[in-house]
Design a protein that fits this description.
This protein is 31% helix and 16% strand. By secondary structure, the protein is an alpha/beta fold. Bound molecules: iron/sulfur cluster.
């Protein structure tokens, strides 16, 4: 605070990007006496222009949360004790290396949670850890989330990270399937202020159509809501494609010279007439014909799908069909369609072609499930921990994650974690999962670390770059996440528990620089020493970011492009840099072996047969469970913030009045919900905002377990929806877990009185699995 001569006081302000979700909003943080006191939307932020949601406003509460761990914890005789960093790493080395030496590297598994993609360390420093560990048992939240999109993009465009995003600011027709960006703030499509952007679409005369079994907030904003049956999306998309072919409306436009496989798709869609799929979709055939015609005739259109189209039996196929509709209507890679960002931290590619992309380089030990992107699917993680034999997982490293709440068949995950020989967690909460750890290594708080959204500028609806330095100095006895991950990597590299993170850091940046400067004929050839000297004042992710920016699409090329981007230039722009609207990237961005878009990749073609067989099968049971999002929740990890869990209880079962009446359920009564693997008791909310035959629960709840060190979260426990999700149920192409469309039985829970006290415990009992 600055005190002026006239007695008035000026608060200090700092600006940073919110690290809590994919929207990357700019925040203005006000300080008093060195403490952050308010967090508001930064109205000068080039992307979010002042938009903020309740989670962003609670960022300082997260930083100051008294339950957030600041120093390592070690379990001694069943009791947690705070220890110094060297002691903690020594315990980790002893616990993990003994197991590795005895049972091999595959005996150590890693599970990386969703927040990893929201930090610089998570984006840059996990890979070196995996490389040092060299275990096949790497798991992440990707296989309870977006892995189907990676598979689809890898097969079609040659790289799993080449993901098109809806050009929401210019499109004239937006078809959203299985997504509720007004609650989720968007995913795989980084755009602050979805409400404002969708209203702008309507104001400029565009049309918004939402396909969802629930009348979500986004569906309520739309011109048209198609209440599809859960799992009906791939049938609907196939029918749209068939209409496009039947009516001569296939027109990929500029892309025609860059596609192979159009005829194959024509053949594949033949069984899926709008009439034939009506039973599976619940959507009248006439609506499908009209929607296909509107998509084809719109000046521009984008089809976009998220969780409801990803965490399902045909996840990869559905993602492929979404992009196929965009391509066949000429809307891929054109303004207003679905486009590819040009992030500042990556070079611009101008020449098509490459090695292509494959999956299945190795398989899981127990079930033989294939690897995707270097990971095995989480739906088999417990198999690998519980089934004895050579290669059994005996130790786990969790990073920013809560698998007991996030993964299917939670009761089994709970048992599997409890049975491990050793577990270490990189996490700043003692949560439902880390309570099983032997050592917890907490990274410093969110205001004491730098931020640049590597993951989300790859998915951004405008080309944006924004870097935020720490706004509160990191206390000397705290450690940044990159240092923790590198020290673990040093342990697996046999450098010992006391080896410094800086050694690994120097090694990694040296390899990055060599990767470019050792290539003969490239502009940076032979300049390694000069480049390293230019970055000598930087360390860790900051140095890697500087290198990536300077050699990236807008970079200064270490002097080759004066005025170009570097970290120091980005720091001069605390509200971020707007690098412009998305631009056409095809063909340069294609890395398939053919150098073309593979419209009918072999694994997808094969999987269509499964869809054909499913078409006439009855749906899964009389009631199916789907998820839902809420603006105030963030998976499982913001539940300890009072402002986010206050107000009406949100962890309730939504059920349609017809189903409630048939089952004798009343508003506020307690329902028993059973699936193949577990059962829960949950308060009921009767609403016509959901289709008959479908019930809905939010995910990320269920914190009131013994030993959880999050007081607020425990007091607002809620029920864990993943007690019901089934680890035997997954999409066999992406191996992504099925979290939407779970067959369930619902009945009145006569053991519970009708009560407004909705804070029931989470794990009531498990099934037999
Ligand atoms: S929308 Fe996401 S990025 Fe924006 S303030 Fe909320 S949590 Fe943060």
């Amino acid at each position: 605070m600055t005190r002026h001569g006239n007695g008035s006081e000026e608060l200090q302000r700092a600006y940073r990007t919110c690290p809590l979700c994919e929207a990357t909003c700019g925040l203005e943080i006000t300080f008093q006496d060195g403490r952050a006191v308010t967090v508001k939307g930064d109205k000068d932020d080039v992307f979010s222009k002042g938009y903020i949601c309740p989670k962003g406003a609670a960022l300082a509460d997260l930083h100051y949360d008294p339950d957030r761990l600041r120093r390592p914890l070690m379990k001694k005789n069943g009791t947690w004790v705070e220890v110094g960093w060297d002691d903690a790493f020594a315990a980790v080395e002893s616990g993990l290396m003994t197991l590795m030496d005895t049972y091999g590297r595959d005996a150590i598994a890693v599970y990386a949670g969703n927040p990893c993609s929201h930090t610089m360390a998570g984006a840059l420093c996990l890979r070196p850890l995996f490389k040092a560990l060299r275990s096949r048992n790497i798991f992440s939240a990707s296989t309870v989330d977006q892995m189907p999109k990676h598979v689809s993009s890898g097969l079609m465009f040659g790289h799993p990270g080449t993901i098109p995003v809806p050009d929401v600011d210019r499109t004239r027709f937006l078809l959203i399937l299985g997504a509720d960006p007004l609650e989720s703030n968007g995913s795989l499509a980084t755009a602050p202020d979805w409400p404002g952007r969708l209203r702008a679409l309507k104001r400029r005369g565009g049309k918004l159509v939402v396909v969802d079994p629930r009348t979500s907030r986004t569906a309520k904003l739309a011109h048209e809501h198609l209440p599809v049956k859960p799992g009906g999306d791939p049938f609907l998309l196939m029918a749209l494609i068939r209409v496009l072919f039947e009516e001569g409306k296939v027109n990929p436009g500029r892309l025609s010279d860059h596609i192979v496989g159009v005829d194959a798709v024509h053949e594949l869609c033949r069984p899926f007439s709008p009439e034939a799929v009506e039973k599976r979709t619940g959507i009248d055939a006439s609506v499908v014909y009209r929607t296909a015609r509107e998509l084809a005739s719109a000046p521009s259109a984008a089809v976009y799908g998220r969780m409801g189209t990803s965490t399902v039996q045909f996840g990869a196929l559905t993602q492929w069909l979404i992009d196929t509709v965009n391509i066949l209507t000429g809307n891929l890679d054109r303004p207003g369609g679905a486009m590819f960002p040009t992030p500042a931290h990556m070079p611009r590619r101008n020449r098509p072609g490459g090695k292509g992309w494959t999956l299945g380089r190795w398989k899981s030990r127990v079930k033989g499930l294939h690897e995707v992107m270097g990971e095995l699917p989480v739906c088999t993680m417990c198999d690998e921990m519980e089934v004895p034999g050579q290669g059994q997982v005996r130790a786990l490293i969790t990073v920013a994650s809560n698998p007991v709440i996030a993964l299917p068949n939670s009761a089994r995950v709970e048992r599997a974690l409890a049975g491990l020989d050793f577990m270490v967690s990189v996490d700043f909460y003692l949560n439902a999962s880390t309570r099983h750890a032997h050592v917890i290594l907490p990274p410093t708080g969110p205001l004491s670390t730098a931020q640049y959204d590597f993951s989300f500028y790859n998915l951004s609806v405008r080309n944006i770059a924004n870097y935020s330095p720490p706004v509160i100095p990191k206390p000397d006895d705290e450690m940044d996440k990159w240092e923790i991950l590198y020290r673990l990597a040093m342990i697996f590299s046999h450098q010992g528990a006391t080896a410094k993170a800086e050694q690994m850091d120097d090694l990694i940046i040296g390899m990055m620089v060599d990767g470019l400067a050792k290539k003969e004929g490239t502009p940076l050839f032979g300049r390694q020493a000069e480049i390293l000297e230019a970055m000598k004042d930087l360390r860790g992710p900051d140095r890697m970011l500087d290198f990536m920016l300077r050699t990236g699409a807008y970079g200064d090329g270490f002097g080759l492009n004066n005025g170009g981007l570097s970290l120091s230039k980005l720091i001069e722009h605390p509200h971020g840099m707007d690098l412009g609207s998305l631009e056409p990237r095809i063909p340069g961005i294609l890395r398939t072996a053919s150098g073309k878009i593979e419209l009918a990749p072999h694994p997808m073609v094969q999987d269509v047969q499964r869809l054909v067989e499913a078409m006439d099968r009855p749906g899964p049971g009389s009631l199916v469970l789907v998820g839902r999002r809420h603006l105030r929740t963030n998976n499982s990890w913001m539940a300890n913030i009072p402002s986010l869990v206050s107000g009406p209880h949100r962890c309730v079962l939504h059920i349609h009045p017809e189903d409630a009446s048939r089952l004798g359920l009343e508003d506020g009564s307690t329902a028993e919900v059973k699936s193949r693997v577990g059962r829960i008791a949950v308060p009921v909310e009767i609403t016509s905002d959901i289709r008959p035959g479908v019930v809905s629960l939010p995910h990320g709840w269920g914190h009131d377990l013994p030993g959880v060190g999050m007081g607020v979260a425990r007091a607002h426990g809620g029920v864990n929806s993943n007690v019901l999700s089934d680890d035997e149920s997954f999409d066999p192409l992406s191996n992504n877990a099925v979290l939407n469309g779970i067959p369930v039985e619902v009945a009145v829970d006569h053991t519970k009185p009708r009560s407004p006290d909705l804070h029931r415990n989470s794990l009531i009992s498990s099934g037999t699995n």
